[in-house]
Amino acid sequence: MPQFTISTDARLTIDDITDRVAEAVDDVAPGAGERVCTVFVEHTTAGVVVNEAESRLLGDVEAYLSQIVPNERWDHDAIDDNADAHLRTLFLGNSVQVPVVDGDLTLGSWQSVLLVECDGPRQRTVRVVV
Ligand code: ZN
After folding, report:
1. Ligand 1 centroid to 125 CA: how many Å?
2. pLDDT tens digits for 81-128?
3. Distance (Å) from CA 120 to ligand 1 centroid
4. Ligand 1 centre distance from Cα of residue 82 (Å)
5. Which of 8, 15, 25, 91 would bridge with 117, disulfide CB 3.0–4.6 Å?
6. Rounded to the nearest whole angstrom, what is the distance from the C-alpha of residue 116 to the centroid of ligand 1?
7. How far apart are CA 26 and CA 19, in angstroms?
8. What domains are defined for the chain?
9. What is the dihedral angle through the alpha carbons of 19, 25, 31, 35, rounded to the nearest 10 degrees?
10. Residue 20: enclosing H or E segment and its boundaries?
11. Average pLDDT over the chain, rounded to an integer
């Protein structure tokens, strides 16, 4: 099963991983035909979504996630001080599916696969299953 790692560089960041996903798909399903690609992050404080990778929008998403889950004292903080990251990830989810036709991701013009880091900086593992 293809996988790759991403090193995030701040507490709350968004990385466009579309090209890495496309490379992984190309490694396992380069031929003709229709398939489905699942992109899964094996973490509880980072999520994956499909949306537009426009820099101002990404800043808006980071601001929005900070607003919907403020960094205040939560019960889980007694363990590892990252409850806000877990709660933000609840809204994102841990996987997305993208159709693959003839070896290519069929994303829309403005769609990218985005890794949303909520508790960085860390190294994150992304699995790609076709
Ligand atoms: Zn935790």
Report:
1. 17
2. 999 999 999 999 999 999 999 999 999 999 999 999 999 999 999 999
3. 12
4. 5
5. 8
6. 16
7. 10
8. 3-129 (2.60.120.460)
9. -110
10. helix 18-28
11. 96
82's tokens: 């990252």
Tokens of 118: 């909520």
Which residues touch 59 (CB under 8 Å, ≥6 apart)? none
What HEC string does 56-95 produce? HHHHHHHHHHHHHCCCCCCCCHHHHCCHHHHHHHHHHCCE
Mark the residues whose beta carbon lies below 5 A from ion ligand 1: 80, 82
Q: Which residue has the tokens 């709350």?
A: 12
Written as six digits, the tokens of 99 are 């159709």
Q: How far is the CA of 73 from the centre of ligand 1 (A)?
A: 13
